[in-house]
Amino acid sequence: NTVLEKLLQRRSLQLCDQQLNFQNSADGQKMLNFRKSLPAFKERDALLKVISENQVVVVSGETGCGKTTQLPQYILESEVEACRGAGCSIICTQPRRISAISVSERVAAERGEAIGESVGYKVRLEGVKGRDTRLLFCTTGILLRRLLVDRDLTGVSHVIVDEIHERGMNEDFLLVVLKDLLPRRPNLRLILMSATLNAELFSSYFGGAPMIHIPGFTYPVRSHFLEDILEMTRYRLTKYNQIDDYGVDKKWKMEKQALSKKKSQLASAVEGSLEAANYTDYSSSTQDSLSCWNPDSIGFNLIEQVLCHIVKNERPGAILVFMTGWDDINSLKEQLQTNPLFGDKSKILLLACHGSMASSEQRLIFDKPYEGIRKIVLATNMAETSITINDVVFVVDCGKAKETSYDALNNTPCLLPNWISKAAARQRRGRAGRVQPGECYHLYPRCVFENFDDYQLPELLRTPLQSLCLQIKSLQLGSISDFLSRALQAPDPLAVQNAIDYLKIIGALDEQENLTVLGRHLSMLPVEPKLGKMLILGAIFNCLDPVLTVVAGLSSRDPFLMPFDRKDLAEGAKAQFVARGYSDHLAVIRAYEGWKEAERHRSGHEYCWRNFLSGQTLKGIDSLRKQFFALLKDSGLIGDDAESYNKWSNDEHLTRAIICSGLFPGICSVVNKEKSILLKTVEDGPVLLCMNSANAQESKIPYPWLVFNEKMKVNSVFLRDSTAVSDSVLLLFGGKTSRGGLDGHVKMLDGYLEFFMKSALADMYMTLKEELNDLVLT
Ligand code: ADP
Ligand code: MG
């Protein structure tokens, strides 16, 4: 032991030496001075003292004050100084991949090291970590995965959970786990870091843990709301802007309905305050324009106008545009590139920044462009707190962010653009004041801002809990309900019960709430269970390619375009993909494969144009497919030989069966009548198909069942997408308890299936199926 200690001490000294060498160099001096100029530096000693004396500490401070990059380094430095350096192990979690990577690179650079020396990172599918790595930045998901194999975090000296104010589901979950762990690991230090000031909530959750606030400095930022912007840019909102919807997928009325309550509140707020502000005093054009403003649509054209205004009239400085998602960012980027003002690469550097891009691409956004080039970054809300682009002077804020929301009563999850909170709007504005006074353009009226919620609801309270429940089980944290009731803000027990019931139905949990083999595999894939189940079966049945497309398609918009002035032509084009498939999902596979083939001959664009397909969406599907493939590989479900996983990829029956396995229990019965088709679900009775569904065009569906991914209630219940399946497929590929699930349906069904269910054959099938599951999954 003493030999080991000596060795460790020597490593520590080496680490010290290396640092001293760097700090004495010119670059090192410059860096050191920069670091000392950050607000966090003044609190360095106080921070270290509190951390050494308390097991849990809550640290808050303005974005950019140096929490993420400095605090972990202070701890590392003080441990090294105390000659414990080689023994310490600091883990700092980040909610997103890109921040884990960029922060670790920054910290390594500040220390004059390459990444992988004392500082490393680990995110899903990527990581750099060396023998001497003492400070590891990772995503929250990675730490949760480590807890799977190492419940006590053996050897870890400090856990820093960053950005807790975001209240992401993983972070809230991790806090419960850590709270349970702390008594078992008295030497473990836990530091919680948050941007805004809800530190009390976290402190009281950890029995009154001490709080430290780092006072910060940002330059003032001027806010311009829509009314100011319209005047400034002399831009008129017209009916055209409403067609050019931003952020809302118009096709789906249900989504509109979900928004309509909030929208009508906002609309009346707009009217009210327009009256109150007596807008007749202002130019009437502003008033006309504002009255055309549609709360759930902001035109790309308006954004383009604002950008033009800044580029033409304002001082130099980067522009950061907050948008809601990947597709919108890409569409706007394409639109801007056709404008000569933005297409000129010698004047404008146009970049995108969102979670699903490669990290090498993401890094570009930090670089400062050459003199005379203006950087424009189109970003999702990722750029709100976790990453700091220093040279931003102008912020354009669309006022929305995509958030998952979940209604426990209807048991339907949705990912919708929603109004952000006041806290988020302030945060976005603050991004403009990092290096000099800035300007923020909010693309909504001031009165709408005043109607925003103060804070966003924590994710745990607004998303389905299925994946989380699997995690709880795989970490062996006991009863799901008990565990979740101990969260910072416990979710609705009904939502918890729904999730547990669902997991039992799909066969991920058994009746005693134990993880099944399938459940264990699902818990290792960071996707919704229904998607995970399809991916797993796609891999097992060597039918991977089409399944990857289905899963990617379910996570994207519909690639089929239906412009209403050319609806007949569009429907005609779609019909060739639909032909005899009786499935929206198979239609997407066929369209995607056609496009892929066309791309190989460089005619993808023409193919899309001819077939009324969205090239943008197909590209999105393509990139998602790659991600899902990488996930399967990472979790060991497939090996290197990709070919063999496609042995049965041309078998549409098998694909149909795997779709069924994922979408179950979303199922409805089909009865073909003389002139119509009668569809029924157990919960809703008669249901209808969405106009755009492939099956809506059929006069007869030669299958007894449809499985569907989503239904929506407008006046009647509509199925948005569906795939027809046979009895045997449903029996074999429905959930593990598909018998129970089917019993309800059997009542509505005549003849065959009733007989089938009662026959010995059914039992045989069930046994066969379970054996099959166990065989392939263990
Ligand atoms: P916080 O976590 O408190 O929001 P950070 O520690 O992320 O603050 O950043 C502190 C400062 O370090 C920022 O104000 C910024 O000036 C600088 N910084 C952070 N990341 C980078 C980077 N990748 N490149 C250059 N400077 C950076
Ligand atoms: Mg930070």
Task: Describe the protein's architecture and organization.
One of its GO terms (cellular component) is nucleus. A hairpin with a 3-residue loop joins strand 22 (711-713) and strand 23. The protein has an eight-stranded mixed β-sheet with strand order 4-3-5-2-6-7-1-8, sandwiched between helices. With 778 residues, the protein is of the alpha/beta class. The chain binds adenosine-5'-diphosphate (ADP) and magnesium ion.
List keywords for this structure.
778 residues; alpha/beta; 8-stranded mixed sheet; 34 helices; 24 strands; 48% helix; binds adenosine-5'-diphosphate; binds magnesium ion
What's the helix count? 34
Spatially, the strands of the biggest sheet line up as: 4-3-5-2-6-7-1-8
Radius of gyration: 28 Å
Shape from CA axes? globular
The ligands bound in this entry are: adenosine-5'-diphosphate, magnesium ion
**Beta-strand content:** 5-15%
What level of helicity do the residues show? 40-55%
Give the rounded overall mean pLDDT.
82
Distance between the termini: 41 Å
Main β-sheet description: 8 strands, mixed
Low-confidence stretches: 239-259, 271-289, 409-413, 736-761
Q: Please report the total strand number as a whole number.
A: 24
Q: Output the structural class.
A: alpha/beta
In short:
The protein has 778 residues and is of the alpha/beta class. The two termini are 41 Å apart.
